[in-house]
Amino acid sequence: MKFKYNESENPPAPFFPVRVAHPANRDQSLALPAKLDTGSDITCIPEALIAQLVLDKWGEIEVMGFEAHPISVPLYAVHLELPSGKRGYLNALAFSADHVLLGRDVINLLHIILDGPNLTLEVLD
Amino acid sequence: MPQVIREAQSQYIVAPNDEALGHETIIVQRDGQPFVAVVPYTEYQQLMALKMVAPPASPSTDPIFERNRIAFQKLLPDLLKTHRGKWVAIVNEKVAVIGDSSALVIEEVIRKFGNVRVYVQEVLETRRVYRIPGPRVVVRAKSV
Hints:
The complex is a heterodimer.
Chain A: E1 2-4, E2 15-21, E3 29-36, E4 44-46, H1 48-52, E5 57-65, E6 71-81, E7 87-95, E8 100-102, H2 104-107, E9 112-115, E10 120-123
Parallel strand pairs in A: 3-8, 4-7
Antiparallel strand pairs in A: 1-10, 2-3, 2-6, 5-6, 6-7, 9-10
Chain B: E1 4-7, E2 26-30, E3 33-38, H1 41-52, H2 63-83, E4 87-91, E5 94-99, H3 102-113, E6 119-122, E7 129-132
Parallel strand pairs in B: 1-2
Antiparallel strand pairs in B: 2-3, 4-5, 4-6
């Protein structure tokens, strides 16, 4: 499946749509754009989803951005479904954005072709 | 810690060639009270990165989570002997599921217990530090 980069970002960034659901109740779900970020160890979800999907805290991890000191943040379990139908559970942390940030915990499970000059990405599975 | 404190005056200008700029935190005072801090850009990026993640919830707001977390801490010495590097789920203050990844543990918890309050953690002496990106620039809002 091919997707256009999001050109509202500078430079344009690879996005594709995903569906994020409550881990135990998949009827509670939201479709959101997801940005690929190989620089992120872990997937992040918009903070607003915690209230929208009534997510409980499942754990906590230490995170560090740039050179900042590590801080402890809550971890939330979610069910993630990709456009291809591939799906699974994952732990994610919340961040201040309106899109999902797919980290290497998800990216490394996929075959993806980034065609930068044509601003497209293809998810092969 | 701020290293330079200055009293703002009407003609005060932060000059780009000021030696303190980019190296120190400058606190500008008005009527003897701090009201503006000028920080090096790298420090600003660190602060923005911290703002990107949701702040940790207060332990007192989630007593079940806190009880499971404390139970994990008590069980950790024994878990390190038997399940180092694995992920565990604590339900009702007891080890409920052990697995090779957090995803597998979540799946098993949902299968066995449904929507239950749980604490999931990796069995390590020192918690791993995850790297996440800092703030990114969005030129204009646009739906994907």
